[in-house]
């Protein structure tokens, strides 16, 4: 397969509907992928300045630049580049050493930049290997960071052994005596993430490292941050700098089929074994943080073993004693921030399609939403009355805001996308509510297409989310961004059926051993409801799309209905049993189907919900996309799906990415992905579906090019 970028085609027409509204530009994949992607912010000690990083991709160079941006919160929210946007810049993980100096990671080492002078950044660390996930504690002048090291636990030892292996290891074999063999998109390494601390001091007017780095996880067999997604949120330094708290999987060969993680504390002077503060827990724990006074540690705790979508309980651990706070609150928080007096915590949690900020009084345990629209993250305490945070939505990537926690008044602090998104069409979401299977209340969103005219008829893009325990929220994403489909001329519907998160744990849990049951019924009822209530949708021009569990649902749909013109199946499950044997996280199918597939009772469940058992019914034209580094659902799932489609003569196309994981992340690959997906659904919804014509071959004349990327 070749990929050709036509340099001349700078402005691209998303669809033929575009000329209806000449002043408004569509949100093309090209535009979306080149928008700035701001991180959450880090706040200066005096609360006056904030720094965030943002990366920008350039199609011409096929490269991203990530630099640091400074926001002056105290003076007009002026926004400036703290480090320049020049090629090969990748600056991240900004932390404030004092009110004037920001440290940040660049190429695996820390550098320091003064905010008030034009002096160039200078290197702070010169460690033998790359470090990541850094935190700083002012009271003890201590940095804590992670690095991947061998059993000897030293940074220098890691460099030495890496070099030795490079020179002397002639074969490429990897050998394993236990699971996991691989996780997400990487084979398990001999090296493990350990957390180190090092002192820093001022030498003249420069910060320098003072003495050796100390490995706090030495000889423990523990690993933190937890792979594959762990970061500096996996540990925290106590306010006095004397102790560190971290999360790790426990030391056991069962980790491929257990989710157990424990929270450990360890003195930062080193030489002491970490102690677990939740040693009896069998579920996953996460996000440990110290309170501002240092008297308490709070963390999130799931109670059920093997279940990574159990409700997160908030545990506050004080003087050796743990209690669950707001234990009947039926939401699952994802982050915790203490006020300065240990009286209140602020948490973020999904709630009915939004990710809100809630305030919880630690004495009365009352829970109150203080920011309720869109998706919030990256909370910082400016003072007990004011929180700095980031907001994204279906119509914009992250910007910074503050909220007054008493009045709930919010104030916008940045407008990062003001220029790039000016005059770009971004549909605002319409809420969809209906009764699903067993009378459950189901919610979702609908976007109107670009150039909307209620007297016309439009095709529908019906998108099913993955997880399955996750949700479509009022949030921005560069993968499956619903506004891309609205800008390509589709009414776009994305529902949160049974299994979704943010609507109470019962709805999430109800998908257990019910994969093709309630969620499928919800989706079909939701589609009927949307068609009945939106006369501008053409009932005979509907595409369904989904990834991961959404891809499973595409295969399930193909075996159970032929109401769709076409399907797009990205990284979907073909065979539930084989999915168990080939995936890395065994706890996931074991929990969902009630055991291992050689257990006769569980085996019935695997068979019952197996899309492979219904291939005899398949009729619908399908685009199959799968990537080689998808170790969650290996590429054979996509190949199997394509084999059935081709062997049955059903119009189909396979798009394979050799260098992507469960997600398509590289921008050039994402452009190709978008071109393939939009082209497929435009082609198959160009004409009304007549059930007789679905097996006829393509009509090349209806092909619509949606982007600069040509499909060869
Ligand atoms: C803040 O911005 C306003 C409007 O742009 C301007 O009139 C004012 O002088 C600015 N104030 C400061 C302190 O920069
Ligand atoms: C919004 O979506 C992005 C992209 O999927 C994700 O990384 C982020 O965590 C989400 N934000 C919230 C607050 O859930
Ligand atoms: C484009 O960038 C990606 C990394 O994002 C790289 O893997 C790929 O090889 C690049 N393509 C070209 C033609 O340089």
Automatic annotation (TrEMBL):
Gene label: DPP5
SUPFAM superfamilies: alpha/beta-Hydrolases, DPP6 N-terminal domain-like
Hydrolase in keyword set: yes
Gene3D superfamilies: alpha/beta hydrolase (3.40.50.1820), TolB, C-terminal domain (2.120.10.30)
Top-rank taxon: Eukaryota
InterPro entries with a match to the protein in the record: 6-blade_b-propeller_TolB-like (IPR011042), AB_hydrolase_fold (IPR029058), Peptidase_S9_cat (IPR001375)
Residue ranges of the TM segments: none
Stated family: Belongs to the peptidase S9C family.
GO biological processes: proteolysis
Domain Peptidase S9 prolyl oligopeptidase catalytic: 476-686
One Gene Ontology MF term: serine-type endopeptidase activity
Pfam families per record: Peptidase_S9
Protein name: Dipeptidyl-peptidase V
Signal peptide: 1-23
UniProt keyword annotations, A-Z: Hydrolase, Protease, Signal
């Amino acid at each position: 397969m070749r990929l050709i970028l036509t340099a001349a085609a700078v402005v691209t027409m998303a669809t033929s509907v575009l000329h209806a509204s000449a002043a408004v530009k569509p949100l093309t994949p090209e535009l979306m992928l080149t928008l700035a992607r701001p991180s959450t912010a880090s706040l200066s000690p005096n609360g006056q300045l904030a720094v965030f990083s943002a990366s920008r991709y350039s199609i011409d160079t096929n490269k991203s630049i990530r630099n640091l941006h400074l926001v002056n919160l105290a003076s007009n929210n002026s926004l400036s580049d703290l480090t320049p946007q020049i090629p090969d810049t990748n600056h991240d993980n900004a932390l404030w050493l004092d009110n004037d100096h920001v440290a940040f990671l660049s190429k695996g080492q820390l550098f320091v930049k003064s905010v008030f002078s034009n002096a160039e950044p200078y290197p702070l660390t010169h460690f033998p290997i790359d470090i990541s996930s850094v935190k700083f504690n002012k009271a003890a002048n201590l940095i804590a960071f992670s690095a991947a090291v061998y059993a000897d636990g030293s940074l220098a030892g890691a460099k030495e052994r890496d070099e030795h292996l490079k020179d002397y290891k002639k074969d490429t074999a990897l050998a394993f005596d236990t699971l996991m063999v691989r996780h997400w998109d990487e084979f398990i390494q001999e090296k493990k993430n350990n957390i180190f601390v090092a002192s820093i001091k001022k030498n003249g007017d420069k910060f320098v490292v003072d003495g050796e780095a100390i490995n706090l996880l030495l000889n423990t067999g523990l690993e933190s941050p937890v792979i594959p997604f762990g970061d500096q949120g996996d540990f925290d330094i106590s306010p006095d700098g004397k102790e560190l708290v971290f999360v790790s999987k426990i030391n056991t060969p069962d980790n491929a089929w257990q989710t157990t993680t424990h929270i450990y504390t360890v003195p930062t002077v080193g030489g002491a074994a970490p102690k677990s503060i939740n040693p009896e827990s069998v579920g996953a724990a996460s996000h440990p943080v110290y309170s501002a006074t240092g008297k308490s540690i709070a963390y999130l705790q799931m109670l059920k073993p093997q279940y990574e979508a159990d409700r997160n309980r908030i545990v506050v651990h004080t003087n050796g004693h743990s209690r669950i706070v707001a234990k009947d609150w039926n939401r699952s928080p994802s982050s915790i921030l203490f006020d300065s007096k240990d009286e209140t915590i602020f948490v973020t949690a999904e709630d009915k399609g939004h990710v809100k900020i809630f305030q919880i009084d630690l004495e009365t345990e009352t829970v109150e939403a203080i920011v309720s629209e869109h998706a919030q993250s990256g909370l910082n305490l400016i003072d007990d009355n004011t929180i700095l945070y980031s907001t994204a939505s279906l119509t914009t990537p992250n910007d910074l805001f503050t909220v007054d926690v008493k009045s709930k008044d919010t104030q916008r602090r940045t407008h990062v996308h003001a220029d790039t998104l000016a005059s770009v069409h971004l549909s605002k979401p319409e809420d969809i509510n209906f009764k699903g299977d067993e009378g459950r209340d189901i919610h979702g969103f609908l976007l109107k297409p670009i150039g909307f005219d209620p007297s016309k008829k439009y095709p529908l893009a019906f998108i099913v989310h993955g997880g399955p325990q996750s949700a479509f929220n009022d949030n921005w994403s560069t993968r499956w961004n619903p506004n891309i489909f609205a800008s390509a001329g589709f009414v776009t519907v994305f529902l949160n059926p049974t299994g979704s998160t943010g609507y109470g744990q019962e709805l999430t849990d109800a998908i257990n051993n019910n994969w093709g049951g309630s969620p499928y019924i919800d989706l079909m009822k939701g589609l009927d409801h949307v068609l009945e209530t939106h006369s501008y949708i053409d009932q005979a021009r509907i595409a369904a799309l989904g990834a991961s569990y959404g891809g499973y649902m595409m295969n399930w749909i193909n075996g159970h209905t032929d109401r769709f013109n076409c399907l797009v199946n990205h990284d979907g499950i073909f065979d539930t049993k084989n999915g168990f044997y080939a995936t890395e996280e065994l706890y996931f199918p074991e929990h969902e189907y009630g055991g291992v597939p050689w257990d006769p009772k569980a085996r019935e469940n695997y068979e019952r919900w197996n899309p492979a058992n219904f291939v005899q019914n398949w009729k619908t034209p399908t685009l199959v996309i799968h990537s080689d580094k998808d170790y969650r659902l290996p590429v054979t799932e996509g190949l199997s799906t394509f084999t059935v489609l081709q062997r049955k003569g059903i119009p189909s196309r396979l798009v394979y990415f050799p260098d992507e994981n469960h997600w398509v992340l590289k921008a050039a690959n994402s452009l190709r992905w978008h071109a393939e997906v939009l082209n497929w659904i435009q082609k198959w919804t160009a004409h009304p579906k007549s059930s007789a014509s679905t097996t006829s071959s393509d009509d090349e004349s209806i092909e619509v090019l949606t982007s600069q990327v040509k499909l060869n």
